[in-house]
Amino acid sequence: QAFYASMTDDREVKLQISKLKTPEKIRELGATLIKPKHTEAWQIEKMFSLNKIKFENYSVLMKKLKDTGYGTKLENRLVYPDLLFGTYQNKGSDNLGKILMKIRDN
Question: Any bridge partners for residue 87, and if so which?
């Protein structure tokens, strides 16, 4: 939710996103918010910064992440096609997995 909410300054849209209950609904609304200025590089940097904040502020989550072991590959396997942040049917860039490994290993 935070990722898509970061794509808009409209408070009503942010509120609408916060009320969505399923990942499918969040992705559906989020897809309408992606603009040309939201390049893949921008999206990856935004996802990194949001996850860094999350793990730095929630020590329980950071411990779980660290417990996966330094150097262990983390993969974001998905049941829907998001080839930027995950893998789907053995295709995709898996940038979320790379982001989590970077946070864990630093």
Answer: 77
The counts of H helices and E strands in the chain are 6, 0
The pTM score is 0.83
Residue 46 tokens read as 């935004």
**Which of 57, 52, 39, 43 is CA-nearest to residue 95?**
43
Per-residue pLDDT tens for 2-14? 999 999 999 999 9
Distance CA 39, CA 6 (A): 14
* Alpha carbon distance 102, 75 (integer Å): 13
DSSP-derived letter for residue 70 is T
Q: 13: which residues sit within 8 A by CB, 6+ positions away?
A: 5, 29, 33
Question: Alpha-carbon distance 47 to 2, whole Å?
Answer: 9
Distances from the Cα of 92 to the Cαs of 5, 65, 67, in angstroms?
24, 22, 25
Measured between alpha carbons, how far is 63 from 61 in angstroms, rounded to an integer?
Answer: 5
> Could you give the 3-state DSSP secondary structure of residue 84?
coil
